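ugh ok fine here u go
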Amino acid sequence: MHNFKKNSWLQGVLYRFAWLLVATFLVIGVPVSLSAEILDGTEPVRLVPMDEEIAEDPIIPSGLDDPSSDSVSDNIINKKETIIITDPILKEEKKLSLTYDDLGLLDQNVGGFSEELWDNTRRKFIIQVMPRMPIETDSRAIRAISLKLLLSPGRIALSDNAKEGEVLLLRAKLLAQMGEFGVASALLRIAKETDFDDTIALYDSEQYFLNLDFDSACDRVREQIGSSDVIYWQRALIFCQSKNNEIEAASLGLDLLRESGDATETFTALIHGISGIRNSTITSLPSPSLLLVAMFRNLGMEIPLDAINTNNPALLRLIAGSEGSDMALRLKAAEKAEAIGALPAASVGALYEKVTFDSDQIAEPVSQSLKEKSSLGRALLYQATLAESLPIARAEILATALRGAQETGSFPTMARVLLPAIKTIFASPEFAWFANDAGRAFFTEAQHWEQARKWYELALSQRDNNRDAFDAALSLWPLIALTEDRETINSEMLDLWWSTKENGDSISPGHYRNANLLFTLLSSLGYKIPDKHWDKLLSGPLSKPSSIISPALYHALRAATDGGRVGETVLLSALAFGTVKSEHESFNTLGEIISALHKVGLTDDARAIAIEMALAAGL
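structure:
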């Protein structure tokens, strides 16, 4: 028997991080049921579902609830100070003055990295490489570790031309681009002696627009307009003037903006609508901005369908909460936001509940969902799950929903949304047929890996007299193997897994593909795979079109890993993951990323990425 770590990657680190974000924004503790506030963005971006209990008392810096609070920098973790360190070579104590670049909001005690994060990493390297971090990744695991990196304190080497706060500003900019305006603003407030007022004002304004707090946003805009000529403030002021019926001022500002070529047709049409000059139908929004979407929301206008073509977390949340817009659009936005960790699964489920279906659909949800393999079909099955009180019938609906989601690539989100219902089904022999569906669903969140193991063990215990249980055990085994604390693979299960995929002397291309991925993930985590199984793969394809990181990135990642430079390894891993186009086409790159994180001691993060990729591939 192999035990999972009690404080798993998400349970220990991200629970605390989620609560730090709660403090940074507005609210601590919100009911699980849907509220307009959740979808409208007044809730922080969370990396764990809202219905999970916090195992420990969160450590929350005070004074972070108001983005304009002057007390923020007085309550930040690791305030700027002089510390004493021991030189590892000379064995002498030295005074070291921390700069603002060394500070952060999330130290090691509350889930961040240690202060040795950037030890032995060149400052110039950080400034050169960090701006290239992928900010719109579709990986929850990569987003989580990237956020930890940007929020953690860590001493950064000084240079002759170092500018105080330049790395802090860079980190804040990336956080803002990831939709984290509140924490970006709070991070910059650490630097009292640097001139970040304009940037802080921008992030405050964006956060207010995200929350649809137009009064506070417009107050911030009017404070800033006299000290900055950035076009953003001019556009925002025209919106505020229009909203407050200052029509003449708004019209003059819009005319000036149009003369300079800085007013798009969409912006102009929205201002005319807010001012009451004329109503326009806007059918396309290919490049949405937070201000534009907030203006749509202010008017109660339906957001164009092509606005969904964004991975910006803040925009996705704002679109998801857009009452009056196309429900399919809202559902897609909510599912995309949840998939990257920017919206709680509970919010997606609550939006599913808002969908209206006709009597025929409600009467036959399973058959109807097969005709509608989309977010609407998932919503129908979700409602059917809630309405069903009989456990066996509920499990059947859950299985249909999970298997359908697997076919459409939406399994992780659907599984997390359904987890509360899945928890009502006990891992008992009469539900052995459900073991694979339930086990895989629990694998979508690290804090539930122990529950996934219970379903695996049920399948093992029933495999001799139940074919479904036998198949479930083999299906779940690769995921179990990736999360075991052992160096060698269970040879019995591996042999069995192989044998069921063989058809005489032939093996399907799909199995070669899955085996290559599984062996890559396992070996990257340090597991030993018998040579005889590697040898079998030599009978399959020996080359495949793939996304391969550049030699420079490969060299840099290897050097950082060999040098034990944690921050550098995380940064380069995020960059390398940005090149991954598909879990089926980037085996070598995935292997390098997972191996690098594992070698510098971030095994929980490495496992989270491995499980995420395995689930995406259907392992």
